[in-house]
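Researcher: Sequence of HPP family protein follows. Predict its structure.
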Amino acid sequence: MSVQKIKRNYRKTKYILYKETLVDFKEHFWAFLGSFIGIGLMAYMQSKTLLHSDVVFLIGSFGASSVLVYGAIQSPLAQPRNLIGGHLVSAIVGVTVAKFAPDILWISAPLAVSFSIVLMQVTKTLHPPGGATALIAIIGSPKITNLGYWYVLYPVLTGVIILLIVALIFNNMTANRSYPNHKKYHIIRKRITNKFKNSLS
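Model: Prediction complete. Tokens:
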């Protein structure tokens, strides 16, 4: 990557972060509502299916993901590819490392995080909370570590799908919010909406 490209990406990221931190009560309202419902759905599933002591659905990295997908929706790190891919790659890495070095924490913990970062970079799915997802597979409660590769599907994949569906709804409720930042998605969404409206009229 050239120095000019790095500087351009830095300026873009700096502008996005500046824009996201401006005081805009409407933006704050939708960010609050989206994150409340996203995390709330997972908490509800947790309370209805598992004991409160066995917190499986609510892994900590989902809180960090919520900051990105509801509070910094234009960030490249918050896009669906990054959200889903980053968590899945990291979960697979975390479980794999846990199987090979289950009792050597000082090796397994840094290995899981470091490998997940590199694989997210390689697959272009960099999502900072993914590092926590990999780490939780190592240091989580016995309920989580005993899941093995089921951890990848449940709670990780289940959780990110919930976060994504809620983000697609609440991040597009106003003209000022647009998520994801892929134009093709919004073109397809408008076509489907128009067809639905025409069928009702």
